[in-house]
User: What shape does this take?
Amino acid sequence: MASHDPSKYQFTTAQYVFIYTTILAAYYVWDTAMAQKSHFKMQTQGITTFRKTFPQLPWNTVKNPTYIQTKHGNRLLTSGFWAYCRKPNYVADWVMSLTWGAIIGRATIIPYFYSIFFIVVLLHRCTRDFERCKRKYEDDWERYCQVVKYKYIPYVY
Assistant: This one.
């Protein structure tokens, strides 16, 4: 940034609104999806009172969650953000990383290194996780994949 004219890093008001709306929406999806998953696990253990920690975003707990009971004994959540794709937290996390680079502009590729590295890590981790789940849950994983059809982005296979 120090070697470029500051005008390269200025945006219009509409662009700033778009960038900040994107990062706030991604954060909301990421935090809420993780809270839904955590609260679901707690609900399966009989815990129904959750700590009031910061932040407490709306819809962080799924009321009457749906799930697939596996032969292995686990439950796979199929409601909330987890009804739309198998890794909503990964997508939101990556969008946040991309937005952090995008706020710098297009003067250099360096700010995008993190999001490029991060997408490779997430795709590898997700592939590994899905293979592990397929071995662990067998037919139940196939059934889960039929219910939650999309891996990352709903309606985009």
